Structures are given as C-alpha cells and as structure tokens.
Amino acid sequence: MNTSTRAPERAQPRSAVRSLLRLWPYVRPVRGRLAAAALTAVLGSCTSLVIPLALKWLVDGPVAGRDPRGVWLGGAVVFGLGVAEATLFMLRRVIVARPLARVEADMRAALYGHLQRLPVVFHDRWPSGQLLSRGTNDLTLVRIFLAFPLTFLIVNGVTITAGFAILLAQRWTLGLLLLAPVAPLIVLCWFFENSYSRLARTAQDRAGDLTTVIEESVLGIRVIKGFGRHRGRRREFSALSGELRGIELRKARLLGMLWALVMTLPELVIGTALVLGVLQVADGGLSAGTLVAFLSTALALRWPVESIGFLLAITQDAATATDRFFEVLDEPLPTAAGTRAGAGTGTSTGPVEGTSAPARTGVRAAAPGSCGSRAPARKGTRAGLLLEGVEFRYPGSPAGAEPVLRGVDLHIRPGETMALVGPTGSGKTTLTALVPRLYEPTAGRISLDGQDIAALPRERLRELVSVAFEEPTLFSATAGENVLMGAEGAEEADLMRALRIAQADFVHELPEGHRTQVGEQGLSLSGGQRQRLALARAVVGRPRFLVLDDPLSALDVHTEALVEAALREVLATTTALVVAHRPSTVLLADRVALLSRGRVTAVGTHHELLRTSGEYAALMTGRGGDGPAGAGRGGKAR
Ligand SMILES: Nc1ncnc2c1ncn2[C@@H]1O[C@H](COP(=O)(O)OP(=O)(O)OP(=O)(O)O)[C@@H](O)[C@H]1O
C-alpha cells in the first residue's frame, strides 16, 4: 500500500490512565452527571448483592419452617429487589446518555476547529482519512469508554469488594478459596493490557489508512474508471483491509484468551466451594441457607469479574483513540501575527544560503527599484506588493535540497497587474501561496503597502488578499454561498457583480438560480463553470490584492475572451499577481516576471521580454517544450 496515505506513526509505550486523564477538560462539565450515574450503578449492583441475603433468610426461615406466608413474602422481597436493580441500571443509562453525547460533540468541535486553523503544511503531511477517522471512529470509542468501562470498572470494583466482604463474613474459609484466583488474574490483565494496547494502536492507524484509500477512490472515481484501474485499486484496498482484519483477529484472539481464563478460574473455584460447602452442610457445620446465600453471592460476582477483560479492552481502545485525538490537537497553531510560524514542522525558518540578489538575464522593471533591489533603503515603506529576498523550502524536503524559491525580489506597484510566467515546476504556485500566508517563507519578507504580512493579523490579511487557485474547489452548498465565501458580509449585490465579472451568468440559468446546490466539490458543474465560480469568489470582496493561479485555464476561447474583458475591469482597481501559462492571460498584465528554477530571472513588459529573454520567448512560442504556444496573437503590449 502506498505509505503516503499513512499518518506520521507515533505509537509509543504509554500509560492508558495518563492518556485518559487528558479527557478531563471535556469531562469536567458533565462530572456531576457521571458521578450520579456511577452512584446509581453502584446502588444497583449492591442491590444485586442483597438478593442472596434475602434468599438465605428465605431458605433458613420460612422454607425450613414450612411457612407459606413467609415464602410468599420472601419471594416478593426478592422480586422487588430484582425490579429495583433493573430500574437503577436503566436510570444510569438515562442519566449519562445526554452528557456523553455533549462530550463527544465538544471534542469533535475542538478537533474540527483546530484542523481549520492548522497551517497548510500540516494538511500536506496528514492524510485526510487519518483525520476523518480521528474525528469519527475514535471519538465514538471515547464516548463508549465514558458510558461503560469508566463507570463499570468503578462499579465492579466496589461490587467485588463488597461481595467478598459478604463471602468472608459468611464462611471465611470458603471466601478465601474464592479469593485465590485474584493474584493470577491481576498478572494476566497486566500482560493483556500491554499486548492489546499495541494492537489497538496499529488497528486504529490502519483503519485511518483505509478511510484515506476509500476517500481517494471515491473522489478519484473518474480517473480510476477512465484508466480502468478499479482492479488495481481493489487489490490495494483488499491488501490493506486484509492487514486490518488480521490485526482485529489478533485482538479478538487475545481478548478471547483472557476471557476464557477470566471465566474458567472463578468457575473452578466456585465448583470447588460448592463441593466443600455441600460436605459441610452434610456434616451439619453449615446451614443450607448460608450455602445458598454463599453460592448466590459468588454467582452474582461472576459478571463483574468476567467483564473485566472486555472493559479493559474498550479502555485500551479509548486510550489509543485519546492519544490519536490529542496528536492532532497538540499540533501547534501558527502564531497570529508577528512571527514566522514555520508551521511547526521543524523546518528551518532562519535565513539560509541563496538569498543574494538573483542573476537577471532579462530586462529590469521600467521603474527604478521596482525589481531587483535586495534590501532597499526604504524597506517596507513601498506601496503595492513587495517581495524581498524571499526563499522557500517545503517542510520535510531532504536536507541539502535546493529551495523551491531563492532570492525572489519583486515589486508590484499599486494598481499594477504582474503576470508570473515560468516553466512547469519553476515555483509559480508556491510563490502565490506565500502571499496569503498559506506557507511561510523560510527567508526574506513579503509586504503589502509597506506592512510585513508576517505581522498582519490573519483576518486583516484575508481582507486584503483574495486568491483563486488553479484547482477550483467548490463546497457542497449553493452556487451563491460558494461565491460569498470569498468575503465576510458580502451581499446579494456583490454576488451579482462578482458573477458578472467572472462571466458566471450561467448560474442564473441553473434550476434555482444562485440558490442551486452544486454537488460535492462542484462536480455537477463543468470545469470552466467551476473555475468561473472560483474567480467570482476571489473578486466578490473587492480585494486590494488579487492572486490568481492560472484562472482561465479551463475556459474555451470564447468564454476566456469574455472573462478577460471583465477581469480587466477588476484588475484596473487592484494590485494583482497572475500566474499565466497562456499568452492571452499574460496580455492582461502590465508587466511580466519570468520565474526560472525558483528565481526571478527577468521582469519587463511582454514585448520587452520577447525581445530580450530567449527563455521567455521559447515559453511563449511553445519552443521551450513546457510553455504555451501561440504567443503574441494580437494582444496588448503595455
Ligand atoms: N506540497 C509540496 N511539498 C513538497 N514539494 C512541493 C509541494 N508542492 C510543490 N512542490 C514542489 O515545488 C516545486 C514547484 O512547484 P509549483 O507547483 O510551485 O510549480 P509551478 O511552477 O506552479 O508548476 P506548474 O506550472 O506545473 O503548476 C516542484 O518541484 C514541486 O515538486
């Protein structure tokens, strides 16, 4: 199986109790209810221990004395005690149901909130299935633990202690006999816990991997079908599912062995006690009522003892689930503003080699200082979008690997549109991701109108910068809601304007207009329609800075021309960085920056670069292999 679908493995020896204690902040608000439920269960369990004492009175009294009224009375008491026990256990369930649903919901909300705030580098590292399984299966396991083992390990402890006190009081010799298996059972449980916890961790991790495979297969169903890969995918799925099945079987075998021993040992000693007790009754050393009471008490203790293995198994599953939950929650959030977060990945965030001014082969910017000055005297005071000595290396890239971006200096003046052109893999998308701080530069600085973006509160940054990515992601919501996500507080008029600019008027023809639900990931729309909605989302908030990653790639020539015309209107009032592969998109820009192997190697107008940069000319005419063809068809040369 592809290991890239696996989360960072962190299975380490740990104490189940210490793991579960971390749940306290979530359990604290419902501690009163949980305590009341435990108390109710203890009362119910103790009621069950009173039944043998009533039986003793019944056998030694009314039954021995042939007193029918006494027998009826005794029977009624035993019946009443049975009803009371059942009622108390039912009450316990009623008391815990609602608060435990709340604990689960609170934990899920905390996980979801944290996931939303974690940086993109975290999501690059973690497979989505692992996160899904932590937010669903694992939290269910925690709720089951709080509902059963947490209460019943306490209840059973109290019941077993009280039961043995009754047994010892009735016949201490037989009582001691029943206590004999306790020591071996404790050792057995200890061994079980150690082995089971390792298996539980592996099983839950593999379940997360399996979720990732299912999710990828569902999302990628078109590719799988298109390439006839379903057999291969099924084999991959079966292998992983077989691995999980094997681990679950080992868990079941381990639990079965524990259960068998936990059941057999008490049965053996109860059998022995029965034989010895009968002999003592025959000798006249023990009353029949006492033997009945003794054996009924011993039998009443069977379930509390036998269930220990099962309760410990759920406890281990829940401890593992808690660890997995907190592994995500412990991931540090990026600092609000003011520092380079480095995204908590252990990546060097300090300056590294290669921040020197890039070698330029092409034309300098028309205005002095608009490109190329590494550390200008008026640092941070220039309006527009300014990148100074920006370097970026993806977290987790091999030591000594070249940074993806090196010494990038670029100044986009207010109101200017800069096209970013470069061969595939040169770092264009990476550069655009740095402006809205989806990633943090490993060196250098980016400023908007003189303000370092690392010092800007994220909300402010989101107001200033809007983005449309190459891959237009839409959500399961209405077309209008997808667009309005682009701006806080935007209204219907803004929506209409954005739809018009993005040439997304097709929305009005949908069955319910902009209130039509678009499917998961917008799959009910064509690629070009999704791209236009994504573009509308980027412009709906009238951002000061616009970053567009090849926004017109999926449009037909006719629609592209319409969108370009409308985009010009927007670009005239914003400062924009537009990744462009096609000459027609380049022609929307005032100037062009050529990115080559992570460096800006030339900046100028389209025509200047065509004249002076061989690499640019090759890209635009398609002679460079990676670049678009058909450059210079008409177009504006500014
Ligand atoms: N999340 C990531 N983790 C590690 N490396 C990455 C990641 N994303 C991109 N890269 C690497 O960074 C380099 C630049 O990628 P980027 O997507 O920025 O190029 P690009 O110029 O936008 O390419 P294209 O024109 O094909 O979209 C590539 O070598 C790519 O393999």
UniProtKB/TrEMBL annotation:
Protein's name according to its UniProt entry: ABC transporter ATP-binding protein
Record's keyword terms, sorted: ATP-binding, Membrane, Nucleotide-binding, Transmembrane, Transmembrane helix
GO MF annotations, alphabetized: ATP binding
InterPro entries on file: AAA+_ATPase (IPR003593), ABC1_TM_dom (IPR011527), ABC1_TM_sf (IPR036640), ABC_transporter-like_ATP-bd (IPR003439), ABC_transporter-like_CS (IPR017871), P-loop_NTPase (IPR027417), Type_1_exporter (IPR039421)
Lineage top rank: taxon: Bacteria
A Pfam family the protein falls into: ABC_tran
Organism, as annotated: Streptomyces gamaensis
Subcellular location: Cell membrane
Region of interest (Disordered), ranges: 336-376
